[in-house]
Amino acid sequence: MQTPDIHILSVATALPGPAVDNATLARRFNMPPVWEQWIDSFIGTRFRHFAMDLESGQVRYSLADLGATAAARALDAAGISAHEVDVMVLGTASPDTLMPATVNMIADRIGVDGVPTYQMQSGCCGAFQAMDLAYTMLMSGRRRTALVLGAENCAKHLDLTIDVAALPASEQVNGVLFGDGAGAMVLTTGPAPRRAVIRQIHLQLVGRNRPPGQVVEWFGRGDRRSDRQPVMEDYQAIAESVPLLAAEALEDLLDDLGWQEDDIDYLLPPQLSGVMTRKIVEHLDLPGATEVSCVVDIGNTGNALPFFQLERALSRLATGDRAVAVAVESSKWIKAGLALEMT
Description:
Blueprint: E1 7-14, E2 19-21, H1 22-28, H2 33-43, E3 47-49, H3 63-78, E4 87-92, H4 102-110, E5 117-121, H5 126-139, E6 145-152, H6 169-177, E7 181-188, E8 196-205, E9 214-216, E10 231-233, H7 235-257, E11 266-268, H8 274-284, E12 290-291, H9 295-298, H10 305-314, E13 322-329, E14 334-342
Parallel strand pairs: 4-5, 4-6, 11-12, 11-13
Antiparallel strand pairs: 1-7, 1-8, 2-3, 6-7, 8-14, 9-10, 13-14
Helix pairs in contact: 1-2, 3-4, 7-8
């Protein structure tokens, strides 16, 4: 039996609040000017958006708020109603609650009901895992239209009363790397001329016997006064490993498809930070491909970020163009890839 093409009908995104630059971040946390310079030179990210107001500490947007906005925009752009969605999947590392699942709260907001819903609890590859699950279900022929989301609300980890200078560097780096946001896409097996087709999704866990590169703790009432560090980023391990794993993911993806490097028109590289992205792109060495990056301007929005890249890329693709997206999750080391072709 011939398998159907899976078309991307639309991609949409949402960001909370105004952009926060490095000077504002340094001033808010009473950090010296050298800290701002460190962000510029070592991280290379200029702006990020937070769901929390940095002056008042008020949380203005939940993950469900951001996800519902992106989802509604994606459905509108696709020209379909919530009642036409057959399956819904969310990838996130920062759900609003452990229960109920945030995907179900978003579904309720936008009017999706009576369909299977899934929430992938994962880091930067969660968006690809969500796409892969939806893709597999559509390929089975049992579903026709999928709504896929990736979203993060990292501001919940910001303590506006804490002395940032006293924090270990592995925790400080999280506050400048990450921002909040959401993305959504509509996939369909139906006829969709002049839309991108997903040619392949590649996912592989490669973390056996490797310590985590990132840890985000979850505290309950019984251990909320724990002295465990709430977030940790082994930036050195990540800087050493991510370019290599990104290259492996790209090679795996091209081998699966039988594509050559010079077949690629657009490259959507991993988006840990501005500096890291430059290093990764240099290591991937695809001079004929146009890079699609946005981390410098919106920060690392985790599982939302591939949707921001796709939103930009899809507006540029011409018939016959090919694009590949690559992601690496450093929490327990997952490499992922996505291949698209414009029909």
